Each structure stands twice: as C-alpha cells, then as structure tokens.
Amino acid sequence: MLKVVIAGSSGRMGHALLESVFADPALTLHAALDRADSQQIGRDAGDQFGRRTGVLVTHDIAAALEGADVLVDFTRPEASLQYLEACRAAGVGMVIGTTGFTAEQKQAIHAAARAIPVVFAPNMSVGVTLLISLVQSAARVLADGYDVEIIEAHHRHKVDAPSGTALRLGEAAASALGRDLASCAVYGREGVTGERDANTIGFATVRGGDVVGDHTVLFAGVGERVELTHKASSRATFALGALRAAKFLAQHQSGVYDMQDVLGLRAAA
Ligand SMILES: NC(=O)C1=CN([C@@H]2O[C@H](COP(=O)(O)OP(=O)(O)OC[C@H]3O[C@@H](n4cnc5c(N)ncnc54)[C@H](OP(=O)(O)O)[C@@H]3O)[C@@H](O)[C@H]2O)C=CC1
Ligand SMILES: O=C(O)C1=N[C@H](C(=O)O)C[C@H](O)C1
Questions:
Q1: Are residues 213 and 159 part of one domain?
Q2: Fewer Cβ atoms within 10 Å of its own Cβ: the N or the C terminal residue of the chain?
Q3: For residues 57 and 32, what is the distance between their CA atoms, to the nearest angstrom?
Q4: How far is the CA of 244 from the centre of ligand 2 (A)?
Q5: 165, HSE (Cβ side, Cα atoms, 13 Å)
Q6: Which ipTM did the prediction report?
Q7: Per-residue pLDDT tens listing for the chain (269 residues)
C-alpha cells in the first residue's frame, strides 16, 4: 500500500483527493496537512465524508512525512515550496498540482528535484495531457497564417490567471512554432490596441460560478478556425491523475516529471 500525505486537505482539491484515496485499495491515507490556523486541525480527515480514518488533520509537516511514501500538494505556491523543502529533507517524493508559480519558484522546484522525484503539472487530467500533444501537432500544421488564442474559464474562487493549464498550452504552441512564450504572450486586451501582431499568442480569462475548468486553443485563419477544447466537469479527473502520478513516483528516481511522463506519452509528444 502506498502511504499518501495530502496537503491542503480541506481545500476543493483536498476533498477530491481524500475521496479518491479512500476509494483506492492500493492507497492508504498516511497524513492530512492544513494551515496551522485551519479549523480542521485535530479533526479526523474523514469527518467531512462521515467516516473515521484515525488520521487527524495536522500542520506538523515533519511528523506527517515520517514513514510516508509521497506527498500530494494542491495549495498555493508559498505553501508548496515549504512542503517541497520538507519533502527534500525527508527524502519523500512529491506531486505538485498547485499553479501560479513565478519563474524563480519553478527553479526552486527543479533544484529540489535533484534530490527527490517530483511530478509537477498544472493539469493532471488525461484529457488535458492529450490536448497538449494535440496543440503541438496543430501548431506545426497551422504554423503560417493562423492566429493562436487561448481562452480559459474557471470558478469564481480561483486566485491565479491565466490558469496554469492555459500557460502550459501556450508554451506547447509557442515551442512548436519556434517562439518564446515570455516574449510573445499577450494577456488580455483593452482600448485601442492596434491590429493583431501575427507572432503573438493571446490569452483570455473568464471567472464565474462553479466552472471546474474549461480550456480552448483557437487557431484562427482566413476562412476557417480550428478550436481544440477540453472541459472538466469534476475535480475527480484531476485527483485520479494526481494519484496515478503518486504511484508513478514510487517507481522513479529524482527528477522533474509531468503527466506526459506519467501517462507514457513522452515519446509521442
Ligand atoms: N494540477 C491540477 O490538475 C489542478 C491544479 N489546481 C490548483 O491547485 C491549487 C488548489 O486549488 P483548490 O483546491 O481549488 O484551492 P482551495 O483554496 O480550495 O484549497 C487550497 C488549500 O491549500 C491551503 N492553503 C492555502 N495557503 C496555504 C498556506 N500558505 N499554507 C498551508 N496551506 C495553505 C488552503 O487552506 P485554507 O483554506 O485554510 O486557506 C486549502 O486547504 C490551485 O493552485 C489550483 O490552480 C486545481 C485543480 C487541478
Ligand atoms: O484552480 C483550479 O480550479 C484549476 N486550476 C488548474 C489551472 O490553473 O490550470 C487546473 C484546472 O483547470 C483547475
């Protein structure tokens, strides 16, 4: 049985992860972590599902990692980096689903992954992992005369924009087109913007209600458009992917992996 620690256990993804761990006989909940000031501290991690697990929610990271196999993190960048340092010190692998990292914070993840295995992906669903490959293929075919725009929609509670997935899709399109996303991205438009620069990749963000996560990559040419869309209807898809990543880590050495590695799609990318 793989012993899993869930960070951010009282969050939206924390709930989805706990449910998926309880449903998988190959996994056992080793510890559940939350903020020191969370009202969940000291309560049974199964309380919100009407079950008794014997695992009390804690903020003691070092104690939570004792004897653990993997930590799964869907929190905020500053919390993820604290968990990462503790995982590095304890020699425990980590699945990072959190989004919104700066370039420097991403470098810190790569540095820690010299010592421990890390799966780091802004979207753990099978569908988005496939979408990344489809976008790369489409961008190669539609390299000339097609404008690339990325549209994403999420629930009203999301704090980062554009979504990590939208940025990853933008990187996939940019690399297939031989561009650098940092210098060609346009994040929203307002006022007299002038005509569209053909070399840019545009991003548009929608926030509202309970949208789990929609992403469209639009290739707009003259006389036609190609739209590649993924819509998540349940967080279970992300949780199942993250737990698949946790099992993958148990078989791998140090390094940074993504969901293409976990799903064995790397060669096809
Ligand atoms: N890779 C993927 O497939 C997916 C990634 N995500 C990403 O996962 C992250 C979490 O999303 P979601 O579950 O909706 O967010 P929530 O806000 O619902 O949950 C975040 C959890 O992290 C905790 N947390 C926040 N800040 C800290 C901190 N400084 N120290 C310790 N714990 C902290 C929160 O505690 P508290 O409530 O007390 O603040 C909460 O338990 C986001 O970055 C999101 O973009 C989401 C879905 C899929
Ligand atoms: O915050 C969310 O909810 C999600 N965040 C991820 C992202 O930023 O890409 C993935 C998913 O779309 C849900």
A1: yes
A2: N
A3: 5
A4: 18
A5: 31
A6: 0.99
A7: 999 999 999 999 999 999 999 999 999 999 999 999 999 999 999 998 999 999 999 999 999 999 999 999 999 999 999 999 999 999 999 999 999 999 999 999 999 999 999 999 999 999 999 999 999 999 999 999 999 999 999 999 999 999 999 999 999 999 999 999 999 999 989 999 999 999 999 999 999 999 999 999 999 999 999 999 999 999 999 999 999 999 999 999 999 999 999 999 886 54
Whether a cis peptide bond, with omega within 30° of 0, leads into 162 is: yes
Q: Which ligand is nearest to the CA of 240?
A: 1
- Which token pair is 28? 């056992």
Residues 194 and 164 in one domain: yes
Cβ(164) to ligand 2 under 6 A?
yes
Ligand 1 contacts CB of residue 100 (under 6 A): yes
Instruction: Read off φ and ψ for residue 207, nearest 5 degrees.
Output: -130, 130
User: How close is the Cα of 73 to the center of ligand 1, in Å?
Assistant: 8
230 is catalytic: no
Query: Annotated binding site for (S)-2,3,4,5-tetrahydrodipicolinate: which residue ranges?
Result: 155, 164-165
